[in-house]
Amino acid sequence: MDPHLAKARFNMIHQQVRPWGVLDDRALGAMEEVPRERFVPDAYVGLAYADCEPPLGKGQVMLPPKVVGRLLQALAVQPGDRALEIGTGSGYVSACLAHLGARVLSLEIDPDLAAAAQARLTEQGFGQVQVRCADALAGRVEGGPFDVIAVTGSLPDPSALTGLQQQLTLGGRLFAVVGEAPAMHAVLVTRDSATDYRRGPLFETCVEALTNAAVPARFAF
Q1: Alpha carbon separation from 188 to 51, 62, 64, 150, 155 (Å, rounded)
Q2: Could you say which of 40, 86, 150, 220 would form a disulfide bridge with 136 (CB–CB 3.0 to 4.6 Å)?
Q3: Cβ distance 202 to 74 under 8 Å?
Q4: What is the 3-state secondary structure (H, E, C) of 16-38?
Q5: Degrees (nearest 5) of the Cα angle 189, 190, 192?
Q6: Which domains does the chain have, with CATH numbers?
Q7: How far from chain centre, in Å, is Cα 170?
Q8: CB hemisphere CA count around 46 (13 angstroms)
Q9: Averaged in consecutive runs of 10 residues, what is the pLDDT profile of the chain (221 residues)?
Q10: Which neighbouring-strand residues pair with 104?
């Protein structure tokens, strides 16, 4: 590995991710082992480990490393878990989930990004990840229920969580960012029974909304 990138990866872990409350060794290990620089466009390799959101084109960006770390820590992925990722993007989060032992189905609404991510994942040894071009918000996803659901774009209308959380197994966990700027917050939803869900706040952040995500109804005067 290029020594400059190796130093940047080290700094990412110890100056960005750990200080933001990511202390889980498995989550940190995934981010240390999965080469983030292989999942950014060539023009932005120098930003792979920076505290920023490298652009992917088509109006999409990567999640910053510290948000990825908190996502992985919150979901507590276990080997053999069936994971649904909504918003493949570059495929980096998919790779981290797979590194932790999940069987990953990732949905990407843009066909070009989906094809590029699948090729990149296969090239990096994560060919077991299945990338499907589809709109995850259009209805129930074939292949569920899921132990883990990771939503990598925000949901302006929190009611969108209802249809997603119903696709969890008992004990399943869902990570999402809900709301609109500047008042977005990450939440973890856990399914406790057939009808009961626990929803807990994690942290405040700002994330680009998923394509086709509904927005809350506005008051009219």
Answers
A1: 23, 20, 18, 10, 13
A2: 86
A3: yes
A4: HHHHHCCCCHHHHHHHHHCCHHH
A5: 140
A6: 3-204 (3.40.50.150)
A7: 21
A8: 1
A9: 90 97 98 97 94 91 97 98 97 98 98 97 97 94 96 95 97 97 95 97 94 77 59
A10: 83
